[in-house]
Specification:
Elements lengths: L2 H12 L4 H8 L3 H10 L5 E5 L6 E4 L11 H10 L10 E4 L6 E4 L9 H11 L1
Antiparallel strand pairs: 1-2, 3-4
Helix pairs in contact: 2-3
């Protein structure tokens, strides 16, 4: 692999092209491109601060930007701010096992809980 090819690989990676497209464009084997890319990962860029703890967050280019620094910060923040969730729980159903009415965010829910589902399975056998 020549110097010009490595420069082209890194440029095409920054543009967001995949291994196959890069290999086809430069007339190289896909595995050669893949191994070069793995040995030379793209640099992380600083995007923002974690809203929970204030740590700096680093994201990879051409990936969705990260909002939280960790899963624990994410779960703590969403637990502290339930009003910011935009979950729609608007479908009303009647449980096929106990007959109780319940609301759910699924269109086709048959049972209100796992216990009712298990009870219906036991009755079917």
């Amino acid at each position: 692999m020549t110097n010009e090819q490595t420069i082209m690989i890194s440029r095409l990676m920054r543009e967001g092209k995949g291994y196959r497209k890069i290999a086809a464009e430069l007339d190289l084997p896909v595995n050669s491109v893949k191994s070069w890319c793995r040995r030379h990962p793209p640099e992380e860029t600083k995007t923002d601060q974690c809203p929970m703890c204030g740590k700096e967050i680093f994201s990879l280019p051409h990936k969705r930007p990260r909002i939280f620094c960790s899963d624990s910060c994410r779960s703590k923040w969403w637990s502290a701010h339930p009003e910011k969730r935009n979950v729609i729980k608007g479908y009303t159903h009647t449980c096929r096992c106990c007959g109780r009415e319940f609301t759910n965010n699924r269109k086709n829910a048959d049972y209100c809980c796992r216990e009712c589902f298990a009870e219906a399975r036991r009755k079917a056998v």
